[in-house]
Amino acid sequence: MVIKVFLATASGSTAIKKKxxxxxxxxxxxxxxxxxxxIACNEDNRMWMRQNVPEDMKPSNGIPLPPQIFNEESYCGDxxxxxxxxxxxxxxxxxxxxxxxxxxxxxxxxxxxxxxEADEDKDEDSQPMSEEEEDLQSEEEEELRQxxxxxxxxxxxxxxxx
Length: 162
What we know:
Number of strands: 4
CATH topology of the largest domain: Glutaredoxin
CATH architecture of the largest domain: 3-Layer(aba) Sandwich
Mean pLDDT: 84
CATH class of the largest domain: Alpha Beta
Radius of gyration: 32 Å
Shape: rod-shaped
Number of helices: 6
Largest sheet: 4 strands, mixed
Helix content: 40-55%
Number of domains: 2
């Protein structure tokens, strides 16, 4: 999976530059591999970005501004949605990436998976038995009772001292 960040290296807007630096800096801090794609110097990148940002995510003028973030062909969001994911500590989910091993989120997911497996095992154990299983269990219980009866019969009776 390749994270693509569409940027404008030759932007005259300080606000856009700051947003781009924030996204790139945060991805680098998390050690998330990404590919920066310049829309100022590459018309193909600009056209691809504009065509692949969903209509409902485009601004009213129809032209999305950088930074725009994709996971391969899948749209993740713009700066605002990235910022919200960052604030919610859900950047990996926002990017469509699994949390790194050893992270708090990864441990929580591992614990949840273990609980689900335990629940599934419990559900399998609690399913009604077939007639064959019931017969087998009854036979085993009967054998156990017979063994217990034999053990009691063989046990020497203790004499009481007077």
